[in-house]
Amino acid sequence: MDDRIMQFRVGVVVLAVTLIAGFLTLLFGHFPKSIVNRTYTVYVEFTQAPGIAPDTPVRKNGILIGRVTKVELVGEHQDRVKVTLAIDDDKVILHSDIVRISVSLLGDAEIQVIPNDQKQPGDATPITQNGGRLRLNFVADQPAANPNRPVKPGETIQGSVANNPTQTFANLEPEMVKAARALTSASEQVNKLAQDIDKLLGTNNDQINRLLNKTERSLDLLSKTMTNVDSIIGDPETNARMRQSINDLPGTLKDLRNVLTSVQRTSTRAERNLENLEGFTKPLGQRGEALISSADQSVRRLDELLAQMQQFSRQLNSREGSLGQLLYNPQLYQNLNEAATNVNDLSRQLKPILCDVRAFSDKIARHPELLGVKGAMQPSTGIK
What we know:
This protein has five domains: about 30 residues; about 130 residues, no CATH class; about 45 residues; about 80 residues; about 40 residues.
């Protein structure tokens, strides 16, 4: 085979391998993104940039929109950090968006772009320690003149630093120490209380035994009392009387309610008379002896009324009265029950008669001519 042909074939194979390797590198390899996609530069200034280095991802709403290309110190005293971002050309950052550094528990840092509606006001920016104490700066939200205006390429915006979880735990360390000390103090107080209780029980053991003996005797007396009560309540005759009294109680309560209603009406009238008497005190100075005489007569009448009420209540409490008869005279209650039964039977018997009368009156209303001889011979159509 000719050497030229051999060299040509080797060159074709090398060129093909180079093209395939370049394509695979672009497709799967860690290749600078600016070569594939076009980007624009945005500068962000921070008070500090923990964990930020070139190639740190920049995310907006969790979506990768660019990466960090450079981190440097700026300012007169180099007290600020300027981070250069390479943002994809098809992605937009608004002036109202918040650009902040977020550090995870594992120490991974990233730059987050948070829209204005998702921003949490007062993002804390930790500064270097001063005298063993961590000082926090809270970056206030200062809206731009046009918050919806996109950041132009090469423009510088301000950023903030989110709270570091590990630093937050470090800030909680003094409080945890205080809580541990308080818990230790509480345990000491509980131990002291237990010792005091032990001393109290040890010195007053005899008194506790006497108290237990008294309690046991009290329980024995209570048991005897309950046995006596059970012997009284368990009597069949007593149970029968109690059952009869309970059955008679509704009627008695009804009569008592009527009596109390009457008493209430009487007391209302007496109260009205007292109010009228109180109204007479004002013109008392004007009318003189006439009002005094009228008031004296009213008082006498009121005394008589109260005497009558007292006599009336005395009669109600007497066994000879209506309430006493209902309570102690079973025959009267039986007569009332029979009278109610007779009234019920009478109403049941009158019901069909009333129905017949109603039918008869309806028929007469439709055929009034039935009342005469001519109408009976020539009935009408029955239309009213």
